[in-house]
Amino acid sequence: MKFKIAVIKGDGIGPEIVDQSIKVLNAIATKFKHEFVYTEVLMGACAIDATGVPLPDETLEVCKNSDAILFGAIGHPKYDNDPNAKVRPEQGLLKIRKELGLFANIRPVEYFPALAHLSPLKSSVIEGSDFVVIRELTGGIYFGEKGKSADGETAFDNCTYSKHEIVRITKVAFDLAMKRRKHVTLVDKANVLETSRLWREVVKEFAAGYPEVTLEMMFVDNAAMQLIQNPRRFDVVLTENMFGDILTDEASVITGSIGLLPSASTGNKVGLYEPIHGSYPQAAGKNIANPIGTILSAALMIESAFNLNEEAKAIRTAVAAAISANCLTEDLIKEGAKSTTEVGDFITQKVLEA
Ligand code: IPM
Ligand code: MN
Fold first, then answer.
1. Which of 59, 199, 237, 280 has the least CB density, counted as fewest CB within 10 Å?
2. Ligand 2 centroid vs 35 CA: distance in angstroms?
3. Is 113 part of a structural domain of the chain?
4. 49 is catalytic
5. Do 310 and 237 share a structural domain?
6. Which H/E stretch holds residue 252?
């Protein structure tokens, strides 16, 4: 079958890691006789340099007309250290999420037994962890009204949620829970925030339609602790935009490296698939970044957007083979670490040989 993929390599290590995903996808195309047609477009700091804006109209158009979007990372330190910058790379990502209606961010946190020794957490604690964070992605404090007073003495960011926004993401979480262990943990700060109280009201009401699913409510501060103290208790974690951002970086510690985790951002139309990590500018161009999170994002993409389940499994098996063979980048092993391209080549080869 033929699929159109918009490719946004982005900034920092983005181009290097996305190139590995494309190699793996090409191996899938050869092996399973598909055709993947890639259109490369700009977003982030590279787009600001080339066009003055972080998300050019052309990028949005190409993305809208594709079957899926494969994305690397964006961000550049020159903007991070300049609070007065008028345009920022991250605005591109936020805008594409909003424009494409990508309200559901799905971040599976999987424990790799072969890597347990690399986590700073005890193996006995993380063993058997298997949960998915469902993060609301187009609302809350990220998208509320924001501003700074004329005298520069105060600033604000509003957090707003509507019932409609809560219901549609809750449905994603409960539908997923039905295919898993049927347990949803709603993470919020309902002891302080009005928006969290609305979330509780809406989610509880929604849960009545899913009698088989157990709903648990947890404050975010407690959840931050439980995630690394007792991660096995979680199955599906449902939460708002900013809590989900913070908790998924924390959860990546369970797997041993943030470089391993994929994610899918979906809505009603085309979905965007990306690793959860950032652009890691210190490593850009050095061929040392971990490509596995991006390669697993490609697996998630062909599975959920193209329905290529066997093909996605082939990618995951090849990644598992790289892990067992210690064919890993330096974030995971110090001695005998392989380069980004070596890991990409190994996984590509395994797909072809399968
Ligand atoms: C993420 C990132 C983004 C976010 C940034 C780059 C805007 O941290 O996808 O987790 O905060 O959502
Ligand atoms: Mn983040």
1. 280
2. 32
3. no
4. no
5. no
6. helix 241-255
